[in-house]
Amino acid sequence: MSTATLTHTPAPAAPATRTSSVHDLRLLVGRALRRDSRMLDAMIVNVVLPVAIMITFVYVFGGAIDTGTGGLPYIDFVVPAVMLMSGGYGAAATAAAITEDMTGGMIDRFRTLPVASWTVPASHVVASLARNLATTGIALAVAFALGFRPDATVLDWLLVVVVVAAYILTVSAMAVVWGLLVRSVQAASAFSFAVLFVPYVSDAFVPVESMPAVLRAFAEHQPTTPLVETLRSLLLDLPLGDAGWWTAAWLALGTVVAVPAAAVLFRRRTAR
Fold first, then answer.
1. What are phi and psi of 99, to 5 degrees?
2. Torsion-angle region of residue 14: left (phi > 0), alpha (psi -120 to 50) or beta?
3. How far is the C-alpha of 17 from the C-alpha of 114, rounded, in Å?
């Protein structure tokens, strides 16, 4: 009588479970925000620096500056610029964060996980938006304490939030591009100083009419000027003119260029 031999074939290993991209993004945003919360010194600088600039201009230079806006208090004139500086300076720090991930070995760990690659740079942008909307709100609260009195309606305030959020998103995406182009955190940090400096050559703190011809030409045709004018018009019930259209155009252009560039650069940097 023959005896049947049973051969046990082990089941193949189950492939790693891929979660949804939205789930990946949520987890990575949480990671970025937790890391930011542990860097209290950087968060303090993001809040204190724009506020310190505002106090300096209002109480040191403000009395000597003619805003050309029919007696508008200087603090009302300058607060829209401070809001942009607060959000933009913090958003620019995204460059250092993405560079740290690229050079510190974190990307190698992500390669071993079933994570959609695009969610890594996107998480830095979304975390930057949440973080810098909060710091901008703190700077605005300080401005109210110093005497800022806007005339904005509820709809105006909603539009202000939209403009500031779009600006933060655009600068964050551009910061990711810069952070992927350079090879060190120190070089990536230079983007913050560039973003902080640009508002000075605009009508953020003084009317462009007071500038020399060359600087005036640059100030009138760079993004910060229509951005500040748009916020100023919404907050203080001033004529908007064509500043709103220029603001939308500059933000759309920055996003359309920066987002695909960030995707291409990240794909190239992480290719095996």
1. -65, -40
2. beta
3. 7
| Coil/strand/helix, residue 75 | helix
pLDDT digit string, tens, across residues 209-264? 888 888 899 998 999 999 999 999 999 988 888 999 999 999 999 999 999 999 88
**In one letter, which amino acid is 58?**
V
Rounded Cα distance, 199 and 145, in Å: 23
CA angle 231, 237, 242 (to 5 degrees): 60
What residues have CB less than 8 Å from 144, skipping those under 6 apart? none
Residue 67: both structure tokens together = 């805003």
SS3 164: helix
Tell me how far apart the alpha carbons of residues 78 and 73 are, in angstroms, rounded to a whole number. 9
Torsional sign, CA 127, 96, 86, 198: negative
